[in-house]
Amino acid sequence: MTTWERVASAFDNPLIAKDGVSRMRTWRAPLVLTLYLGLLGIFGYAVFILFVLFMTSNGQVGAAQVGATVFTFLAFIQISLISMFAPALAAGAISGERERQTLDVLLVSRVSALGIVWGKLVASVAFMLLLILAALPLFAAVFLFGGIDAEQFLVTQLLTVTTAVSLGATSLFLSAVFRRTLTSTVASYGAAFASLVGTLVVGWLATIVIWQREGTLGQTLSDVHPFVFANPLYALYIVLTSANGAPMSLGKTIALLFLVVGPGGNAGPQLEPWQATVLVQMVVIALAVFGAVRLVRGRRVAQPRVRLEPEELEPVEEVVEA
Q1: How many domains does the chain divide into?
Q2: What's the DSSP call for residue 270?
């Protein structure tokens, strides 16, 4: 098989077609899409009006400033909305099949455990990618004002996509752990809050400890704890506000993870916050998929691997009716 055929075969999954068609045929899909675009449009227009009125009252207004401000607010609103929709879309992927008593039907089918998990993940993430794709015209309209370059636009969308996929994979894993959709949904929202807000709070508290040990508390610093450095919100903020990207070496990142400060630790490649965030999210996706596959595979009855030849089978006595 060629590379293209292998990629195409990965998406040739009956669960992707079944879940995708069933989701798009209901009234919830257009409602969620309308609500998502409506909230983005309302917040973006409100920020535009308030910023223009504020700058006009001060006698200072520039098109580039307006574009950068509106784009920044739209990016943070979008990643917040995606974080709210991702657990709801993926938390019931496996637990919902268990509640409908259709999981056993999938387990006895020819679809492997990896195929079940992969199909559920792609079906859940595909709708989130549709939301992100539908919002691109709103972000593209900001280019009329300027203030945002193409690299910032692409990195922002990449961070949004990887955040959506990582939250979807985590919610899918929790859906395989818990038997009830309500429990998995609550746990998924807790995991999303911990990954976005919890790591940011804990990271900043650890960063304050690092600054106190360095004796540079209150100064303009670039050394932050890896919990902050690999946080999607912080990475998005650095991409949109910092020109140099605030890079940090891999050795220093590992040292600061254990609150070790000193002149050394600058070994390794330089990583920007968005690069570290994408790497961490890729690891989370791989671990979540692996864990979900293990849980689903544990419910499947082991199939015999040795196929007996016809001559090796025991003869069966024929029953002749009298």
Answers
A1: 1
A2: E
pTM of the model: 0.86
* Burial class for 75, CB neighbours closer than 10 Å (0-12, 13-18, 19+): buried
Which structural domain range is residue 177 located in?
Answer: 13-299
Each residue's pLDDT tens digit, 69-81: 889 999 999 999 9
Kindly report the number of other CB atoms within 10 A of residue 258's CB atom.
Answer: 7
Q: Examine residue 283 and state whether it is found in any structural domain, yes or no.
A: yes
Q: Are 185 and 218 in contact (CB under 8 A)?
A: no
- Residue 123 counted as domain residue: yes
Q: Is 102 a member of any domain?
A: yes
Asked whether residue 135 is assigned to any structural domain, the reply reads yes
**Distance of alpha carbon 121 from alpha carbon 123, whole angstroms:** 5
pLDDT tier for residue 44 given thresholds of 50, 70 and 90: confident
Mean pLDDT of 2-22: 74
Helical ranges in 142-272 per DSSP H: 150-177, 181-193, 199-214, 226-229, 232-241, 250-257
